[in-house]
Amino acid sequence: MTPKKSETKFKRMDGREFDETREMEAKVGIIPNADGSAMFRFGETIAVAAVYGPKKMHPQHSQNPEKGTLRCDYSMLSFSVNERIRPGPNRRSTEISKIIEWALEPVLMLDSFPNMVVDVHISILQANASTRCAGINAAAMALAHAGIPMKDLVSSVSIGKLDKQLVVDVSKYEEDWEEGEGATDIPITMTHGGEITHLQLDGKITKEQLKEAIELARKATANIYEIQKKILKESMGGKND
Amino acid sequence: MIETPDITANRIKEYLSGGNRFDGRKLDEFREIIIEKNISKNAEGSARVKIGKTEVLVGVKMNVSEPYPDSQDKGNLMVNAELLPLSSPRFENGPPKFPTIELARIIDRGIRESKFIDFKKLCIKKGEKVWSVFIDIYSINDDGNLIDAAGIGAIIALKQAKIPKYDDKEEKVLFGELSKESLPLSDTIPIAITIHKVGNNFIVDPTREEEDVSEVRVTIGSSKGVISSIQKGDEKSLSIEEFHNILDISEKVWKDVFNKIEKYLN
Amino acid sequence: MTERKIVIPGEIIEKGNDFLPGEGTEKRGNDIVAIKYGLSEESNRLVKVIPLSGIYQPRRGNVVIGKVENVVFNGWLIDIGMAENAFLSLMEVPRYVNKDALEEVLDIGDMVVAKIWGVRKRSMDLSIKSHGLGKIDEGIIMEVNPNKVPRIIGKEGSMINLIKNETGCNITVGQNGLIWIKGNKVGDELLAKKAILFVTEKSFTEGLTEKVEDWFKEEKK
């Protein structure tokens, strides 16, 4: 069982409670050329997303005659991390691009766009762990901003386990935790309605604690949703045409 | 619609003949330049440059490596650019195409040839260890004139950069820990100014619409009247007189741009 | 009638069986839920979302502006911003066109105002037979989000007519978001363009026509 707030003096390095996310910030309409765009920040992790589409899809053989295609790409700027990342796709970014596609796909309604594509481009400007979660949050807002029909928004957060302690919104320091059972990282994406569209895990955890982790994610993503909703509503008419 | 239609192009040229541009600027006037420093904390130095709606991010990273065989006592410089698909419907994912490569090389030459960086001071141990400086340029929104925006970003990021700590004993760079030492830079600030010929007129800092209509361009990297790099691009030719005109324009515009960015250079 | 408000996808707009789901919404159980980002509106129990963004949905009878992409043996392929190019048959031109002289009527790169007379599964059919349609000779073309077009035109054309009168320009608004402005001076055309951009930025303000009138007074000082 996760030691609860009252039972332990567990304090995170940055002073947060175990179930506290870092300071969050969001904006929409930050890229005038895009059909929809947004920025999302968890503490020092900053992601931007731009949506182009629905539009003609090339190459033609990739077209789906039954509905529109979602295409995501995730990349990190070379200088977003301490040790420079060589430009160009790598295995990690290729995998994350697909994961993000799967996290967003269940809420998109692309039946009315056969043979078309919706491109979602995500770039990480500054990284302090939880980059794919920030990217998904930005992408969800950008898709709504672009006027893509959606059943719901999705919100994403990383749940961590440091030794035996569950925490919400993992920072890099916590990702590298080595004491005891080490660090377990669980990024989760949920719809506002409570469906899980994305879940990954690496580390070591019991079934019971995983269920607790999902419950923590439910609460955290509900908070994130409120921020995404607030920013989308406040930007009424703010999109550049 | 992605490309500027011919009829709009005709109007742009017509209007220019009267000394006017669609957004009310003079032919040799830059849009508003907004600069933010240190926009990415894991970079050794970084900057966001907005010229009108055009936005670029530039970051500086450093590492220690062996020097090149023909410069055993000098540090290295590598300039890389990416025209990100998120910045324009015209850019696609994939290996860098020519405009990306050209942009990086123009900025590289502008910095290298102007001797802005004192590479000798980046030498740790001759023949064995030198500092390498990596400048990475990313487009965030393309509304024309990415080259000049990138050039300004590179200068600001370099100026702002601090050298990482280096552990002599372990012989490794302590990434994430910066010393208080700035890069060895000269006082002469190289700024790239690109002049475009549209119809019979010359303009600077084109919007994307104007850039579509430009027939030939010349990027001049200079510093206080000393020219250190030039690139003429696109397919049309220029008369000698036109070229002289371009040199005059670049000199004047250099001063204006320098005045606009001076406060960010400290 | 309930108050209009900005809604996001997944948000419940109305609860209860009294209401019917219109465009941009769907019914989930007893709730009317938004599936698009926009302004919710209810009238006569029909709840819909007026989108703030999104691509153009072509309809029969719409006037659109496009660019000639290709000349084929029996007509032209026109790009109007959809996945597929629209087709303009040489039979849908007001005068006789010689099969060998198609380029003389419309060539690649020309801009044209056309009307959609047929919407097929994968493409559209255009016509330039009626008055006010045809090749665009000069002026400026601007692009706005198609969802803003109703506001730019205004109730019974009130907004676009105001802009036309204040600038002395001929303005053709394509439902696909492309707008052709032709005036006596480039300065007038640019003023019209600026006015249209003002309308798109303030599209959900009340009393917009008045605001635009005031805006023109300021601009002309």
Question: Which secondary structure elements does this structure contain, and how are they paired or packed?
Answer:
The complex is a heterotrimer of chains A (241), B (266) and C (221).
Chain A: E1 24-28, E2 36-42, E3 45-56, E4 69-76, H1 91-104, E5 116-126, H2 131-145, E6 154-162, E7 165-168, H3 172-175, E8 183-191, E9 196-199, H4 207-234
Parallel strand pairs in A: 4-5
Antiparallel strand pairs in A: 1-2, 2-3, 3-5, 6-7, 6-8, 8-9
Helix pairs in contact in A: 1-2, 2-4
Chain B: H1 6-17, E1 33-37, E2 45-51, E3 54-65, E4 76-82, H2 98-113, E5 123-125, E6 129-141, H3 146-160, E7 162-167, E8 172-182, E9 191-198, E10 201-204, H4 208-213, E11 216-223, E12 226-233, H5 240-261
Parallel strand pairs in B: 4-6
Antiparallel strand pairs in B: 1-2, 2-3, 3-6, 5-6, 7-8, 9-10, 9-11, 11-12
Chain C: E1 5-7, E2 12-15, E3 20-21, E4 25-28, E5 31-34, E6 38-43, E7 46-51, E8 63-72, E9 75-79, E10 86-89, H1 102-105, E11 111-119, E12 124-127, E13 134-135, E14 140-143, H2 149-153, H3 158-167, E15 170-173, E16 178-182, H4 186-201, H5 208-219
Parallel strand pairs in C: 3-7, 10-12
Antiparallel strand pairs in C: 1-6, 2-5, 4-5, 6-7, 8-9, 8-11, 9-10, 11-12, 11-13, 14-16, 15-16
Helix pairs in contact in C: 3-4, 3-5, 4-5
Note the beta-strand portion of chain C: 25-35%
Note the run of SSEs of chain C as H and E.
Answer: EEEEEEEEEEHEEEEHHEEHH
Report the mean per-residue pLDDT of chain C as an integer.
Answer: 92
Structural class of chain C: alpha+beta
The CATH top-level class label of chain A: Alpha Beta
User: Which structural class is indicated by helix and strand composition of chain A?
Assistant: alpha+beta
What keywords describe this structure?
heterotrimer, B: 266 residues, alpha+beta, Ribosomal Protein S5, domain 2, six-stranded mixed beta sheet, four-stranded antiparallel beta sheet, 27% helix, elongated, C: 221 residues, OB fold (Dihydrolipoamide Acetyltransferase, E2P), Ribosomal Protein S8, Chain: A, domain 1, 3 domains, five-stranded mixed β-barrel, four-stranded mixed beta sheet, 5 helices, 16 strands, flat
